[in-house]
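Continuing the series of single-chain predictions for the mutant panel. This is the parent chain; the variants come on the following pages.
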Amino acid sequence: MRMKRVALVLLCLSVFGLNAPARAHGKTRARSRAKTVTFTGCVKQGVECLILVSLDGKQTYSLSHDKRLKVGGAYRVTGTIQDISTCMQGQTIKPQKITRLRTHCPSR
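Parent structure:
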């Protein structure tokens, strides 16, 4: 009987001991995930999603679907970086604020 009680106590300690750090770690990680960025560039068609390419062509972000964005237009997009996405090109921004610019985008 004593052996069963010891086994039950050890089982409870191991379950609660493993869950507590996992919950605390998850909360810390969730806060750090929502990184906000502002990026200016031209919208082009990507593999799965639209992409925003910097005006100098050196940096690219994928964009979550948003009806305000049109291929060939120049925009300043402020949004959060998404950890998980169906887009297949680089980091994905989920747009929150979109400003259309009067800049001419290269046709290439």
